[in-house]
């Protein structure tokens, strides 16, 4: 008689198959032909990404009471950049924004947006405070002793105990000012959270009402801020008022909910903001654009969330979230329409967006100038024209699902690829991912004559009693090496050189260790390679 019982090993094998099938289905990816989606490195619970001036990726994460930033090298290895202790890392808080000073090469300044844990012992059980700070780095190693808070947001502790909607993204504008996105802090309990017997607890029942704090110029909540590099307020900010002691002097735009990511379109004064939508029947995910070229003007400086004060039974307050009709309310005429929106039926949260404008593209030309954006829950990437028209799906199944699992922070990189983060509690899933296109980028095909990299050596023929000059036109600041290989294939000499971006003119002072003969001179960096023949007489 056959037994219908499964042994433990069989159960374990079955469970493994089911789990693997789940992971595979979660990553059932579709991309255009020739495009590759690959994992670069693992990072626990990542929150934001940025790029170093020399073209490498910075990945930020918020884990265990620490804000952690690492540099991802060309080969996928990571180098510690800095760790901020006593960082409040519950929910969406933590190290959530980073930007390099435009003058980083001379001053070493790096700006961060993080949530400081204000508890005495770092137990994450006390108050916290979203903070814009500056830290100084030398040779891409940051010194924690230089951490300097520049602007502390949400001073009232009733605004800082909420777990979500911190915003936090940072970007330097063409005017040299630092722009920062601040969320509405998810203060959905409205007045019940601020006054009365439940003040400060924000545990006020099921009434999901979006507050009007995003329209209050006395508060940092739900705003885009504009800041001088020393942390002071620019006097040409649109709401600046001499003698004001509250937030208004720092405000640049009102009316956002949770602007999780934003960036400037290259070569323009356009600031593009991805604003996560609200709950309720009117939920819409927004892509917004404001022009920063005229700071003092109020035109275009209000994105409309939330003008409503009336609590409704279905939890949907009157709002301009999504597209709106100016005839519905006279005040709508002062608000700025989003460029594009999508409803809850298509996704739960717009978590990233960027223009693809690479000078060394790996994507096909039809994608250049398009705006790419992604949803946290659905794991798709779509793209559109800059006017919001011609929306198409680029990829699906990259990672999505909500409840702490999804894709965030898509960015075009200096190497011509796209990078994004996957945030997950599943081991081996979280980390940095890359999308590579089918176009061979300049500097990666090894053919100097067909790319922007120019490598030359002279004199040629050379005398081993003389010096040898070589030139390299570098697109990135990076370390490379030159190897002299004889005709038997043996490396006779290796020279390592650190190149700066642009034209480099270097000299090898001593080549006396090279015997007379013919050599193949192999030149390589992480982004370029070339071979020249050299005769030593």
Tally of separate domains: 4
Query: So how many helices?
Result: 3
Distance between the termini: 88 Å
Low-confidence stretches: 1-26, 189-210, 309-317, 441-453
Strand residues, percent:
35-45%
| Structural class estimated from helices and strands | mainly beta
The rounded Rg comes to 26 Å
Can you give the helix content as a percent range? under 10%
Number of strands: 31
Task: Give structural notes.
This protein has 537 residues and is mainly beta. The chain has 4 domains: 64-158, no CATH class; 164-344, no CATH class; 349-441, no CATH class; 448-536, Immunoglobulin-like (Sandwich), CATH 2.60.40. Helix content is 5%, strand content 39%. The chain is built from 3 helices and 31 strands. It has helices at residues 8-26, 104-107, 191-194, and strands spanning 36-42, 46-51, 57-63, 66-72, 78-84, 95-100, 109-117, 128-138, 141-152, 167-172, 178-182, 223-227, 251-254, 258-264, 270-276, 284-291, 340-343, 350-355, 371-375, 381-384, 392-395, 406-412, 418-423, 431-436, 455-458, 468-474, 478-486, 491-499, 502-508, 517-525, 528-536. The strands form 8 sheets. A 4-stranded antiparallel sheet has the order 1-24-23-22, with no helix packed on it. A hairpin with a 5-residue loop joins β22 (406-412) and β23 (418-423). The termini are far apart. Residues 1-26, 189-210, 309-317 and 441-453 have low confidence and may be disordered.
């Amino acid at each position: 008689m056959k037994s219908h019982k499964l042994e433990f090993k069989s159960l374990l094998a079955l469970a493994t198959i089911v789990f693997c099938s789940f992971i595979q289905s979660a990553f059932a990816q579709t991309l255009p032909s020739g495009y590759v989606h690959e994992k670069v490195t693992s990072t626990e619970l990542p929150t934001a990404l940025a790029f170093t001036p020399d073209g490498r990726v910075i990945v930020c994460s918020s884990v265990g009471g620490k804000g952690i930033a690492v540099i991802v090298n060309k080969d996928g290895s990571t180098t510690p950049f800095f760790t901020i202790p006593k960082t409040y890392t519950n929910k969406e808080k933590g190290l959530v924004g980073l930007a390099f000073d435009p003058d980083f090469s001379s001053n070493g300044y790096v700006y961060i947006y993080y949530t400081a844990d204000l508890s005495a012992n770092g137990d994450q059980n006390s108050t916290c405070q979203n903070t814009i700070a500056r830290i100084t780095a030398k040779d891409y190693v940051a010194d924690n002793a230089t951490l300097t808070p520049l602007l502390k947001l949400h001073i009232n502790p009733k605004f800082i105990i909420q777990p979500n909607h911190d915003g936090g993204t940072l970007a330097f504008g063409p005017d040299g000012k630092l722009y920062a996105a601040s969320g509405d802090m998810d203060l959905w309990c409205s007045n019940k959270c601020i006054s009365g017997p439940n003040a400060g607890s924000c545990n006020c029942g099921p009434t999901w009402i979006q507050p009007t704090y995003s329209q209050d110029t006395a508060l940092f909540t739900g705003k885009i801020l504009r800041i001088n590099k020393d942390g002071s307020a620019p006097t040409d900010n649109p709401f600046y008022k001499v003698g004001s002691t509250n937030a208004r002097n720092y405000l640049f735009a009102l009316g956002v909910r949770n602007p999780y990511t934003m960036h400037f379109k290259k070569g323009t004064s356009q600031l593009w903001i991805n604003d996560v939508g609200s709950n309720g029947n009117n939920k819409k995910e927004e892509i917004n654009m404001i022009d920063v070229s005229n700071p003092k003007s109020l035109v275009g400086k209000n994105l409309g969330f939330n003008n409503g004060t009336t609590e409704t039974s279905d939890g949907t307050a009157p709002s301009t979230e999504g597209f709106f009709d100016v005839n519905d309310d006279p005040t709508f005429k002062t608000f700025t329409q989003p460029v594009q929106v999508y409803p809850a039926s298509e996704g739960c949260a717009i978590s990233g967006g960027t223009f693809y404008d690479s000078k060394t593209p790996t994507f096909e030309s039809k994608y250049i100038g398009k705006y790419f954006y992604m949803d946290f829950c659905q794991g798709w990437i779509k793209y559109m024209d800059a006017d919001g028209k011609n929306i198409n799906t680029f990829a699906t199944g990259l990672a999505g699902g909500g409840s702490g699992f999804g894709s965030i922070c898509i960015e075009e990189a200096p190497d011509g690829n796209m990078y994004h983060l996957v945030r997950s509690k599943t081991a081996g899933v979280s980390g940095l991912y890359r999308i590579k296109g089918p176009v061979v980028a300049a500097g990666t095909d090894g053919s100097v004559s067909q790319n922007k990299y120019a490598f030359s050596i002279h004199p040629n023929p050379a005398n081993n009693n003389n010096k040898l000059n070589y030139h390299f036109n570098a697109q990135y600041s990076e370390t490379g090496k030159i190897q002299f290989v004889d005709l038997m294939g043996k490396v006779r000499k290796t020279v390592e050189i650190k190149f700066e971006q642009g034209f480099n003119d270097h000299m090898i002072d001593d080549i006396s260790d090279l015997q007379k003969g013919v050599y193949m001179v192999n030149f390589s960096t992480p982004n370029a390679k070339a071979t020249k023949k050299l005769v030593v007489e």
